[in-house]
Amino acid sequence: MAIIVDKNSVILVQGITGKQGSFHTSQMLAYGAKVVAGVSPGKQGQTVHGVPVFDTVAQAVEMFPITASIIFIPAPGVKDAAFEAMSAGIKTLVIITEHVPLHDELDIMAYAEKQQVTIIGPNTFGIISPGQTKLGIMPNSIYTPGPVGVVARSGTLSYEIANQLTQNGLGQSTVVGLGGDRVVGLSFTEVLAKFEQDPATKAVVLVGEIGGNAEEEAALYIKEMTKPVVAFLAGSSAPPGKRMGHAGAIIERGKGTFQSKVTALTAAGAKVAALPWEVAELVRQSMGE
Description:
A seven-stranded mixed sheet has the order 3-4-2-1-5-6-7, sandwiched between helices. The chain has a seven-stranded mixed sheet with strand order 9-8-11-10-12-13-14, sandwiched between helices. The protein has helices at 19-31, 57-63, 78-87, 102-115, 155-167, 188-197, 214-222, 258-267, 279-286, and strands at residues 10-14, 34-39, 47-48, 51-54, 68-71, 92-95, 118-120, 126-129, 133-136, 145-152, 172-177, 203-209, 229-234, 271-273. It is globular and about 55 Å long. The two termini are 21 Å apart. The chain has nine helices and 14 strands. With 289 residues, the chain is α/β, with parallel strands linked by helices. The longest helix has 14 residues, at 102-115. It folds into two domains: 10-120, Rossmann fold, CATH 3.40.50; 138-286, Rossmann fold (3-Layer(aba) Sandwich).
């Protein structure tokens, strides 16, 4: 089992002829993902790593039963690309691009809600269900199938933690990157709810960071969960008012501090690791191993 994407996901790559789109298409194919088509206006008839290229999403959807799309489009074009995919009936959308204009992000999320589309990102590393499929830019080699769900705001931290889990014999059911921008599709709470309902997921790792209140909102849901949650938070030494890498990682008006998040998560029953390499042992303990 997995959440959101699995071995049956049929994938479209928007921006497939670009440098990033082409490279990561090759990596997704190497992982076994069912990448069946790409879109790059004006490039119809070409192929990229054996994948046919179309001018429009509508043309690709006519040819293949596409269920998910991943977007490698420069920020100014992301809104049009996302609307095109959603209008064509695609129900899962992964937006890798960062620095998408804020108003465009708001428009994308509003339309996604209307169309009942799941948006992962913008500014995400993507999503992977180990041993089944991946839509993203994460390294192929560090994941292994298993019972631990991972949901993260940070890509590099999630790689480190997934690698530590794998090295400790703790495989992953699905690893989800929410995205680091101010406005993103899925929330921690929504992903936690999916893991709670997934029979193959026995424990969950939450990788958060300073800024915003997403972790505090997640803590309210964690109180009701039957599955153990282990958290790690980045930004313990970040000064207020300074953005730390992600647009969403900024402490403003005293809210979104490291300590407020630790306090909320601990009170909800989550175990909070002080260092990334402590996560695996806490997961093992929480699963009673």
